[in-house]
Amino acid sequence: MSPPPITSVTRQLSRRSVFEALLHRSPISRADLAKVTSLSKQTMSEVIDAFEQQGLVRPVGRTRGNVGRTAVLYELSPEGGHVLGIDLGAQRLTVALADIAGRVLAEADEATDGRGGGWALDQIARLSDRLARDNHTHPSRIRSIVMATPGVVNPRSGAIELAPNITGLDHLNVVGLLGEKLGSPVVLENDINLALLGEIWHGCARNVDNVAFLALGSGVGLGLHVNGRLVRGENGAAGEIGYLPIGGDPLQAESRPQGCLEYQIGATGVVRRYREAGGRDVETERQVFDRAQAGDAVAASVVEETARLTALAAATVIATVDPQLLVLGGSVGARADFADKVARLLLQLSPRPVEIRTSILGRRAGVVGALSVALRRLHDEFFGVAELAATLPLPPPARRGASQ
Amino acid sequence: MSPPPITSVTRQLSRRSVFEALLHRSPISRADLAKVTSLSKQTMSEVIDAFEQQGLVRPVGRTRGNVGRTAVLYELSPEGGHVLGIDLGAQRLTVALADIAGRVLAEADEATDGRGGGWALDQIARLSDRLARDNHTHPSRIRSIVMATPGVVNPRSGAIELAPNITGLDHLNVVGLLGEKLGSPVVLENDINLALLGEIWHGCARNVDNVAFLALGSGVGLGLHVNGRLVRGENGAAGEIGYLPIGGDPLQAESRPQGCLEYQIGATGVVRRYREAGGRDVETERQVFDRAQAGDAVAASVVEETARLTALAAATVIATVDPQLLVLGGSVGARADFADKVARLLLQLSPRPVEIRTSILGRRAGVVGALSVALRRLHDEFFGVAELAATLPLPPPARRGASQ
DNA sequence: TTCTTTTCGTTCGGTCTCTTGACGAATTAA
DNA sequence: TTAATTCGTCAAGAGACCGAACGAAAAGAA
Q1: Which position has the higher pLDDT, B401 or A245?
Q2: Left if phi > 0, otherwise alpha if psi is -120 to 50, otherwise beta: which for B278?
Q3: Tell me, what's the pLDDT at A116?
Q4: What is the Cα–Cα distance from A20 to A37, expressed in whole angstroms?
Q5: Which end of chain A is more exposed for a tag (fewer CB within 10 A), N or C?
Q6: pLDDT-derived band at A46, boundaries 50, 70, 90
Q7: What CA–CA distance (Å, rounded) separates A80 from A390?
Q8: B8 CB inside 7 Å of strand C
Q9: Would you kindly state where each structural domain of chain A is located, as residue ranges?
Q10: CATH for B206-360 (3.60.20.10, 3.30.420.40, 3.30.360.10, 3.40.50.2000)
Q11: What is the spatial order of strands in the sheet that B82-88 belongs to?
Q12: CA-to-CA distance for B386 and B12, rounded, in angstroms?
């Protein structure tokens, strides 16, 4: 429940590998843990004793059926710590709760409070509290919270810099306010990035290291996962492919605020193009897609052009970062018919074929990704090793006249 | 000279941090090392004794002028190990030698043996051997070799998959053959990636974490450095921006083999466009750029268009990965007049301005980057800690019906 | 039912590494 | 020549690891 006391680096490394083994192979006995981690039985008993005393681990029965003495089996206890994932969308607010072992305990969602700003934050606090209590978890037991939000999140300050879809959120200190309301540290991350991480953890991109996630819905966005990490960009603006110079003249004044590509294939762009081509009586991009499927020729050509531009964007991403897998997501991108069109066009555009899948988590992707990051942070808080800097920094160039 | 014997993890961590301090602050006394690393004087003496016995470290005089007893100063000894960097270009072959402290001891270059293949490898071996002997280093002391090569290097096998510019290289087992000739393990890496790392280590991007390197010369290519690591891509094909759908119809048959963008702004593309516009008597893209500067209006418009397409490619990269710094390199890209044009155009294309610099290492960038990787590998061989995996892997989704 | 075999988990002794404190050695400042 | 200061070693003790030995507990065989 509280982070394990740090003693020596050696012991911390042992704890860490015991925890890792518990994560992936519980329930498991101390004897097996010792084999898996190649620590001695002695050390193992010490570590497990400490874990049990902290409430991180609990015994669950004994082995049966094997020759020899039975062994006590242990698993990670739900009391060990909880994490909360939040997806704050323009339409829907989703919240999910998981324990330290990554078991998803509960999810809940509501329509987002349309008044935005502080009201939305209050709503989040209410919903989170209810979720915790319904699962017999005191909210104070939650040790790590991650929230998905549309717009750009500054990777250094963690603040929202541009949230076009939710009113009055970009001038609030969301991290501070929400942290206070919920009583635990809150971290924000872009919703598309988290949807990508969701698909990597529980979705269609499980265990793939090198993934691009192209989201097409009300807007267009990209998430990149490379070398096992998210690509955030210096300002958190990586993946803002609405600004790609595709689908029109990037210098044209009308399209500059949203970006050239978004102007064409964002929801309002699709509707606008349908109207310009003579289509009538539409409000949402969804109607255009539905009509195309129902045989409306004008709608079909708008959809075709949307798919063409999406394929160009995908080809751009593929040429730039060479992913192993391209995931199509978002309310439009995940439509099977649309994804097929894009895949077909892409075959002609890209020198080497790339596997394409559609999101299987759909609207849940963001909240699942938020959980995965919250979980990572909790694990790092408990079992991180400070000394574990990646690589040694190289020395700077020799100063002129320095000693040989 | 040989890797330090591994004993306990704790001791390896101590050695590692002592070495890091030596890298950045030598010459330095044991007393100061103890302060910097926050190890005890006792431990420090033990570690330094061991280092000295291995030949990794040597005493260089004593402190002077301070109150109290003088201290023995130590520095990393050049005998501690050497690394070799190689840049195999279509025109020139460059080789450089450095010691374990990152001091560049010597460089040499020659015109590449035009017969390619095995001849080029022999030439590399000859030049490397000479470089080592001229610096009183027996070639067997070299413990790590990295070579820059044009084309795509498979990140898993380390083999060259596509080397259009050097004949007969893509069907050779370069890693194996060269490793045998030189007597040390050889690692290959794409030349643009290494030029980028060169600029990050010794060039215009020193200590910047988030860098895009756009190279324009005979071809066009991109290197990306994100989260402190190179972006290689699943097949080593990240940065192959010749295939970006910019500057023409990407489906057009004529441009498909090299890629749409490369067809326009690669060297042959520039020359072709100049001829198509009525220009005469040119062989190389360099002449076109020189004539533009000399006042040739046709050449100027070709250059202008080249700059425009380059700026579009840059805007694409910026929207996708949001780098802190964009470096322009390659024989064309590094020209100040050309870089200025690109920077001006980019201001109008990109929603947020990004700093632009031109390569300052020029042709040396590749070999310097090769040295930096070779050095990193040597350091990791000596002072890596296996237990230091980045983060704990998350558990997979719960199987249906698994124990609660 | 009893004995044998196998495995679990604890106890004990020994090793490695790190730290602290004490102390002699070496140097500057008074 | 003495005092102050810093360096570097020595010795003692603590934390963490491992392997060996051993009792405990279960399954299987007689």
Answers
A1: A245
A2: left
A3: 84
A4: 9
A5: C
A6: very high
A7: 28
A8: yes
A9: 9-79, 81-195+365-383, 206-359
A10: 3.30.420.40
A11: B104-111, B92-99, B82-88, B142-149, B186-190
A12: 10
pLDDT in tens, B342-376: 999 999 998 889 999 999 999 999 999 999 999 99
pLDDT tens figures, A203-229: 999 989 999 999 999 999 999 999 999
pLDDT at B402: 41
Q: Which two tokens stand for residue B390?
A: 């980045």
Q: Which of A202, A233, A388 sits opposite B322 (nearest CB)?
A: A233
What are the pLDDT digits (tens) for A282-338? 999 999 999 999 999 999 999 999 999 999 999 999 999 999 999 999 999 999 999
Q: What is the pLDDT of residues B73-119, one digit of tens each?
A: 999 999 999 999 999 999 999 999 999 999 999 999 999 999 988 99
- A66 shares contact with chain B (CB less than 8 Å): no
Q: Which residue has the tokens 């309301």?
A: A181
Question: Could you tell me where the DSSP H helices lie in B247-321?
Answer: 260-265, 267-276, 285-294, 297-321
Asked if the Cβ of residue A70 lies within 7 A of any atom of strand D, the reply is: yes
DSSP secondary structure, A29-71, as one string: EHHHHHHHHT--HHHHHHHHHHHHHHTSEEEEEE--SSSSS--
How far: B32 CA to D13 C1' (Å)?
25
Q: In this predicted structure, what is the pLDDT of residue A168?
A: 81
Q: What sign results for the dihedral spanned by CA atoms B120, B126, B127, B129? A: positive
Does the structure show a pLDDT above 70 at B403? no
User: Position A117: which residue type?
Assistant: G
Do residues B108 and B130 touch, judged by C-beta distance below 8 A? yes
The CATH number of B81-195+365-383, from 3.30.420.40, 3.40.190.150, 3.30.420.140, 3.40.50.1000, is 3.30.420.40
Chain B CB within 8 Å of residue A6 CB: no
Burial class (CB in 10 A: 0-12, 13-18, 19+), A400: exposed
A359 Cβ neighbours under 8 A, 6+ residues apart: A195, A199, A203, A204, A213, A327, A328, A329, A330, A333, A334, A365
B66 vs A: CB within 8 A: no
Q: Is the pLDDT of residue B305 over 50?
A: yes
Task: Please list every residue in chain B whose beta carbon sits closer than 8 Å to the beta carbon of residue A310.
Answer: none
Task: Give the distance, in angstroms, between residue A51 CA and nucleotide D15 C1'.
Answer: 18
- What does the longest C-alpha to C-alpha distance in chain B come to? 80
Q: What CATH architecture does domain A9-79 belong to? A: Orthogonal Bundle (1.10)
Cβ-defined contact of A75 to B403 (cutoff 8 Å): yes
Q: Which residues on chain B are in Cβ contact (under 8 Å) with A393?
A: 20, 23-24
Nearest protein residue to nucleotide C8, judged by CA and C1' positions? A69
Q: What's the mean pLDDT when you consider all of chain A?
A: 93
- CATH fold of the domain at A206-359: Nucleotidyltransferase; domain 5 (3.30.420)
Which tens digit of pLDDT belongs to each residue from A242-253?
A: 999 999 999 998
Q: Which of residues 39-68 of A touch strand D (CB under 7 A)?
A: 39-43, 46-47, 62, 64-68
